[in-house]
């Protein structure tokens, strides 16, 4: 009887999840398998492909363009992610206070950029960063820093990665603030209240109690944030298009150009595989920390 | 905590949050202001936030003027809407089917598979875009809008979201369907899918936004401008394009796109509150009297149908066990079902808890145990183990039953206010047992002089009254916060509320520890028990008492009104003088007319049957509705 029950459950369970299996096979497994094959060829779009083994990967190792893209990706991701994590944590701690007035407004304000699209907000940020006439220039003039109003945010090699990072921070901090906030809610208040009663200061409570309890969530935010931010294409495309002089030509832009502009399908697939491998390692690390409740 | 230190923390919280809010909102403000300006007013130093000349027609021009090889933004927008709507519909159907499989069936590797699906959400889309492009090319879907729909019709995120909601559907419901001989797909479509209303809204909005905001993928697969989506069309406008001077039109277009996202998100945020804006007209029943009828009995349906005829749309009751069949009958008649749980009173079990665990028995200021009054003794709320047992019961009830809401009753310090707070009576303070006093000492950082209980009680009530009040309120608020949080984690859709004692605020806080300002934000409903006859008050007392609560808990007050008093003796209680039919009419009319009062609950539903009191309620509800 028990066996029959089990097979019934298995049969219908598998039947109901079969669309997911098809989807997963069609849009994850098959494409990746195809790309693995393509990455071992010298395929250029419109020409016959020849098997060349691991030559593409060897090419990547010695390709200064690829090194540069990797470096640009890490720089921008590093700057953006460090700021996002620090800001999101501080904002979440400030918001995690049921007695705080205006907290609904603050949450709305912090979250607003997350739901809007990269392109519409990217247009606005193009004009914000515009030298001499832009919003930032106007604000600098307003506070008497007129020497800064002519800074060419998106067209100097030093500032462009920073401009992209600022845009990313503006857009993404709200998301991770909400993740931290969900995490803080699950930290039992009793510990903190008990410590406060025992005479600990607010800073001590934060560093000795709240922070250690938040460790798993912080790890999750850092790891999944890294994968998300390093994969971003839109902010770079909207603000700098990869320039100036390749200063912001990060991995997604490198792959996009190699494939769609230079039509080097095999080489781009190899770069894609390396990128996917990097992301996969981090995604697996993050998945181990994945607290299911965040997705509610 | 010292007040000045606390104020400093608050101040820095506000400083930080408002600074960030400005950073966050400024681009939007500037976008909207630029969208309403003439071109020459857009990029000025210093910035002009208020347009010197208003040009609202910019929005229309941005939408309708053909600019991109003859296409206009309206066309792009229509494409975006079409893609997003089809993706959303497909996603709702597919992910609930898959979510149902993951939530309600047992099979090997199920959790591993779910984990794999979920892990895909962590990978950036740009990492698979090349291989995906190769597939779509092979399927000859390049430059087709279907290429934007199909890969996004099912995602790890949507599956997981659907599963989280479906897991809360009670298994009994499915078993009942199986007993009736329905096939699994039929059970899903007929029984499960209709219950997923709020889940589908959330799922739909998430999918719609993802689809609406897609950029890299359409950029890769679309080549004809007539098929462009809005983000793709917008990107044609940016710097370096041929429309350099039309900044004001860019911003108009960008604001249109961004406001669609914001509007959708706001509607998602308000969805949780939508349930509240619908007026609740409830009828309270004592479970043991009411539920004696079998739910399958025609009489049960008849009782509920009559109530629905009076305008009642919700049943309120209190018990530790419920008959799911009753709840289903109520639902089939369009009535909501609100269960409740007696948190700190065990009268439902003839006070067995305090007899078995005497430490739970409240101690009054005289140092003696509270004498039983009618059916009531009460339970001291400072014992964690007991509190946790009640919390577990609440969670179990919420998991097992398809309640629409769970109300917390007796969530307060012991007081038989029905008798003790009548004019001239003397309410007894509780509880001064050693455990509670120890907790109070820790909380308030005071030390109560060691002496007999009566002495300690009078020391507290004269020297530390304010701290004692704060302590009592903190205990109750803490319990409610924890209970509601845990309830949400098992049933995100569950409505919550709490019954509050109808005393003046200072007395309510001191005697029973219910501080409305702290409690109201935690729940959806605050139910003042405005039983005027029981408390020997005039009919006019009801509106003033309810009005005070409605001010302290804006939009959340749901007053419980005493319809009549003749049922009391049968329940072993004194419910006061008889309530005349006109008195009931006046009370219900006054209360429903109060600003910020969302409805009412008749105490009891049975009494609505007496001399047409239910009809009176129906008439008043109609008048009230017309007045709005």
Give your account of this protein's structure:
Chain A: It is found in: Cell membrane. The complex is a heterodimer of chains A (296) and B (628). With 296 residues, chain A is mostly helical. Chain A is 73% helix and 0% strand. Chain A has twelve helices and no strands. In chain A, helix 2 (55-61) crosses helix 12, helix 4 (103-115) crosses helix 7 (159-185) and helix 7 crosses helix 9 (202-230). The longest helix of chain A has 38 residues, at 2-39. Mean pLDDT of chain A is 83; it is low at 292-296. Chain B is globular and about 85 Å long. Chain B is α/β, with parallel strands linked by helices. Chain B has an eight-stranded parallel beta barrel with strand order 1-2-3-4-5-6-7-8, surrounded by four helices. In chain B, helix 4 packs across helix 7 (156-166). At the A-B interface, helix 1, helix 3, helix 4, helix 5 and helix 6 of A face helix 1, helix 3, helix 4, helix 5 and helix 7 of B.
Summarize the structure.
Chain A has helices spanning 2-39, 55-61, 64-95, 103-115, 118-128, 135-142, 159-185, 189-197, 202-230, 234-239, 251-261, 265-289.
**Which architecture of chain A per CATH?**
Orthogonal Bundle
Mean pLDDT of chain A: 83
Q: Work out the strand percent of chain A.
A: under 5%
CATH class of the largest domain in chain B: Alpha Beta
Q: Which superfamily, in CATH terms, is the homologous superfamily of chain A?
A: MetI-like
Q: Compute the number of structural domains of chain B.
A: 2
SS summary, helix count of chain B: 27
Low-confidence stretches of chain B: 240-245, 269-277
Share of helix of chain A, binned:
over 70%
CATH-assigned fold name of chain A: MetI-like fold
Give the full name of the CATH homologous superfamily of the largest domain in chain B.
Glycosidases
Distance between the termini of chain A: 37 Å
**Shape field of chain A:** globular
User: Could you describe the largest sheet of chain A, including whether it forms a barrel?
Assistant: none
